[in-house]
Amino acid sequence: xxxxxxxxxxxxxxxxxxxxxxxxxxxxxxxxxxxxxxxxxxxxxxxxxxxxxxxxxxxxxxxxxxxxxxxxxxxxxxxxxxxxxxxxxxxxxxxxxxxxxxxxxxxxxxxxxxxxxxxxxxxxxxxxxxxxxxxxxxxxxxxxxxxxxxxxxxxxxxxxxxxxxxxxxxxxxxxxxxxxxxxxxxxxxxxxxxxxxxxxxxxxxxxxxxxxxxxxxxxxxxxxxxxxxxxxxxxxxxxxxxxxxxxxxxxxxxxxxxxxxxxxxxxxxxxxxxxxxxxxxxxxxxxxxxxxxxxxxxxxxxxxxxxxxxxxxxxxxxxxxxxxxxxxxxxxxxxxxxxxxxxxxxxxxxxxxxxxx
Length: 357
What we know:
By secondary structure, the chain is mainly alpha-helical. 60% of the residues lie in helices and 6% in strands. The protein has helices at 3-26, 54-57, 73-98, 108-124, 133-158, 166-192, 196-219, 229-253, 258-274, 292-311, 317-321; strands at residues 334-344, 347-356. It has a two-stranded antiparallel sheet. A hairpin with a 2-residue loop joins strand 1 (334-344) and strand 2 (347-356). Helix 3 (73-98) packs antiparallel against helix 6. The radius of gyration is 36 Å and the shape is flat.
């Protein structure tokens, strides 16, 4: 009898049966290793590179971090213009501080600093600054200068004769205010990543508050018009700070469109003009016509609100969504990066790869 061919045939059938059983249990070997041998060697190299392509063929790829859009030339130009004013103003303050009054010399410091400041902006913008940073810094400088002007003005009109700060005090307030304001604007950008529209809202709010506050201050004054300076200055300073703080708080929850900002300014103008006929009611009356400024201030405030809510056109929701954390380069709270099926102790398991922020 020829037993060797029979044994070979039985061996082949046994191997085929084992292979078919393994394929039915685990599927065709997709892991880059051959089936056969003991666990730990049957699917390729040991765990860590054990199944060929990692985790059933899903390779980990670090997420690409999105970058903040670059600032526009108009926004950078706003910072350039502000820096020129800052440099010239600082030079004038220096002349007043050291007592330079010679016409041939007193223009040197303003000219040098007026050129040096925008040169500094040029280097700050290389590489280009992200959107929102230039206008945040410039707006901080403008608001800081406005704060210094308001404080110095109120001190001048309310101080006793001979105790006024004078020009040096005014210039010092301006320089300190604009310097601190620029630093705060830089910090505000890194804290909230505001859009340029947000920075313009804050700057506009400071102007609106100053105008409307001055109107209410004048309306609350008594005596001759020359005696109302204290009240007007104080009202403007209070309105400036209240409106600026309100705009900062509002900007955390709401970003206006450029169209809404334009209509907010338009609403202020419309409200002011529409309320002018109130003064006709004071003709032949014993009432102080300054009280009419209350109506003008209230109408201007309502006009700003109407411009934001009814007259202005907001940005589409898709445009707003683009400014969420992903565009700023911040990762979302959680994301799934990949995964797959892997064999585990005679069975199958699942692996999910992700990030939790």
